[in-house]
User: Which sequence fits this backbone?
């Protein structure tokens, strides 16, 4: 989530990105399958929500979460919200019910929107890696 992404400005002209809060993290390799049901609901990938710890998922869940963060960074609000939709949050995520309203997205290129679509593809097999 954005609260765990820190930007530092050292004495150079470069900005360093630091990621924090690894309380429930562990080292994995490309063949490791995860089953733990954990995370902040707005950033959970559909496969985490739909399996609820009963089945495994891969590190592609991180690509989904980064897509959600990118969405928020570009327009200042999350792609999924119970307060703006009559659909429960979990259903919005599992079904991929997000949009790019022109009111907020008109200045964002189609290339960037396509990147978000690929990062937030509900099918992890088709999701950008």
Assistant:
């Amino acid at each position: 989530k954005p609260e765990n992404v820190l930007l530092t400005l050292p004495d150079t002209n470069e900005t360093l990105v630091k990621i924090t809060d690894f309380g429930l993290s562990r080292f994995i390799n490309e063949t490791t399958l995860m089953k733990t049901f954990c995370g902040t609901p707005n950033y959970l990938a559909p496969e985490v929500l739909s399996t609820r710890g009963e089945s495994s998922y891969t590190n592609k869940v991180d690509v989904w979460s980064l897509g959600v963060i990118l969405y928020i960074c570009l327009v200042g609000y999350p792609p999924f919200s119970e307060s703006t939709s009559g659909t429960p949050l979990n259903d919005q995520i599992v079904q991929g019910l997000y949009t790019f309203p022109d009111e907020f997205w008109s200045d964002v290129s189609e290339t960037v929107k396509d990147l978000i679509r690929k990062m937030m593809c509900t099918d992890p097999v088709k999701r950008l890696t």
The two ends are 19 Å apart (CA to CA). The mean pLDDT is 84.
